[in-house]
């Protein structure tokens, strides 16, 4: 990262499964502000399902790019806290990422050129961190220092390999495009792993039929109100992937479907 | 709005039905900070019921006035996103409002003198916005620009008419004041559409009897502990309207009542 | 508090039972920013159970120390709002606390040397505060003024006595250390009132057996992954107290236990 970007950095995003009841997120923010009182702190989510690294990786991968250059993304869904897993800083041209090396940065590795450093420089680590709350005792102080200009390479050893979760990818077969639901959002929108461009190039958005949970949906619509209230439709979602939705209704409930549900796009 | 107010503006409030799980609010905030890194961002609510424009309009109408002059209130509960509904900027003497033209600003129109502008100036719009996430792709960039001093009138065409939801109003009849519950809050407090001043002028706060859900409540109390724990009472709420509450208990659950429940104030 | 600390103060933490749906927290923040636009606002929690002063006192006591010197902690879980209970400002060497005098600061009184002042200086109070929303109408303006340098002693009369909740404490008996669960967090971790140091000095961390809800747990582990997934374990929690947890599972659900559950540490 260009040192000038890092020096200007004053935004830290936070992504955890800590919830908003117990005050854990507040303690992490207090720590960050103790290191750098001028930070702007933005919650990405704290209601990731407990220990669900896959969901956290998805949410981070979907939204990191909308933050200012120099933002430090602090992402801690960390069931292995205090065990053998390492802590890492991931440095790309425009953003920094801090968290456990457990796959939470899988989408980042997939999309960005990045250098990765293990957080193992002894002089930066607390004398007696809690082995159960590295977000507060290790990751927050490191993130705070990075916003003050600490070069990422100084947090510890460069890494050639790190943990990555296999990402869901669609297959193009004789039948069409075979993918899966990778996220269900608050509204019941079912986001798939099928890129818009793939549908456009392989089949076309008006000629396609989407098969999901024993239902068939014809063509891709531009907006929810293209169908009657309560009806299913397929749209090109705001993340660039095919989504299954329902106008004014929860599509996932309607289909009794969840993450992992197969979705097939064929030509009619 | 006085240009000086707008230039100093550095607070943006956010009101949506996006929830706090999926990271959508984080993306909107990242966008805002990309436009103006010095913003102070305040969540008004993101847990409005999905698509419930009436509830969103109420929450905005109740709280907007407590924010600093120059605050931009970004309010997006937007089931018609990407369809025919317009986006608007509403400019009053002290605050700006940005969101869809679907009635979410009904209380603002009712309470404030305001100029309204459609967001249709092509040079301000993105080349390829998602038709499903205008909060991120259209409203946030516009709100950010407004905090940097963009005059509201430059976002597009002035509007004479816009969408307004009929607001619930009490009737004064021979029987007394007949109103309705318009909001039930987290504590089970039932806020009505009956203004304090109307009760005072028509009946008086010690002489009145409130009828709701087959119960009768005598007089208006000053605070919850004026009755025994668990008992119903009527109070003049902090928004200036009559509320039905219970001391240390959820009144709405106790009465099995919800938004829309009739409330009648009579003289005993 | 050193006047220099107070003048630099620009962080206010917020702890309430207001929830995040109705916009009450937003109104409080708007008020704070109207008094001091340069504040950094941090949510500690707004999802404390309605009226649960004990839980609020615990969350505040656990996390206040991680905030920068000069932070004003605004803590309002306040079932007696508008009644006889006083409002107070509590001043310690490093932090200020503002809220109702109902026991919410019990852990603060227990841990810090502090001066306490009733908020009763008439010139600082609004003409017509709502008796139902002191957080917005009294505590937020006072907190805002404190961040601008108002000395705590000027908010009103010094107090010698104030309301304190009896804190849960373990007993050391012939049987061992007898304590209780004082908090169950989002993950189902059960925090006890038994300090780490007491276990270490009385019994030792490898020799001890923890009895809880008819189960026996041997020794203290360093991290969750020291046992198989789904299994119970005891750890020294990040707050310095003994905790009962389960690896990748909700211990409180597993044990059908809640706050108040007895926990006994014996020597095997």
UniProtKB/TrEMBL annotation, chains A, B, C:
Boundaries of every S-adenosyl-l-methionine hydroxide adenosyltransferase N-terminal domain copy: 12-154
Highest taxon of the lineage: Bacteria
S-adenosyl-L-methionine listed as a keyword: yes
Ranges where the S-adenosyl-l-methionine hydroxide adenosyltransferase C-terminal domain occurs: 179-263
Alphabetic keyword roster: S-adenosyl-L-methionine
InterPro entries, A to Z: SAM_HAT_C, SAM_HAT_N, SAM_OH_AdoTrfase, SAM_OH_AdoTrfase_C_sf, SAM_OH_AdoTrfase_N_sf
Keyword S-adenosyl-L-methionine: yes
Family according to the record: Belongs to the SAM hydrolase / SAM-dependent halogenase family.
Protein's UniProt name: SAM-dependent chlorinase/fluorinase
């Amino acid at each position: 990262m260009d040192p000038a970007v890092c020096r200007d950095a004053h935004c830290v995003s936070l992504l955890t499964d800590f919830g908003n009841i117990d005050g854990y997120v507040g303690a992490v923010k207090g720590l960050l502000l103790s290191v750098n009182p001028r930070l702007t702190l933005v919650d990405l989510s704290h209601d990731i399902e407990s220990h669900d690294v896959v969901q956290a990786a998805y949410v981070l991968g979907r939204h990191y790019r909308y933050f200012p250059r120099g933002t430090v993304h602090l992402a801690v869904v960390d069931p292995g806290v205090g065990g053998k897993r390492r802590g890492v800083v991931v440095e790309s041209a425009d953003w920094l990422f801090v968290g456990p090396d457990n796959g939470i940065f899988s989408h980042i590795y997939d999309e960005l050129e990045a250098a990765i450093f293990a957080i193992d420089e002894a002089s930066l680590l607390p004398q007696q961190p809690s082995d159960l709350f590295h977000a507060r005792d290790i990751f927050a102080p490191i993130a705070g220092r990075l916003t003050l200009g600490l070069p990422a390479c100084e947090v510890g050893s460069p890494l050639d390999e790190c943990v990555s979760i296999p990402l869901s990818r669609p297959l193009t077969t004789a039948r069409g495009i075979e993918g899966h639901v990778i996220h269900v959002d608050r509204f019941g929108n079912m986001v798939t792993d099928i890129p818009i461009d793939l549908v456009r190039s392989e089949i076309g958005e008006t000629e396609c039929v989407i098969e999901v949970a024993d239902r068939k949906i014809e063509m891709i619509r531009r907006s929810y109100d293209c169908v009657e209230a309560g009806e299913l439709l397929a749209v090109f979602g705001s993340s660039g992937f095919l989504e299954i939705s329902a106008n004014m209704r929860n599509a996932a409930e309607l289909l009794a479907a969840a993450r992992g549900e197969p979705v097939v796009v064929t030509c009619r």
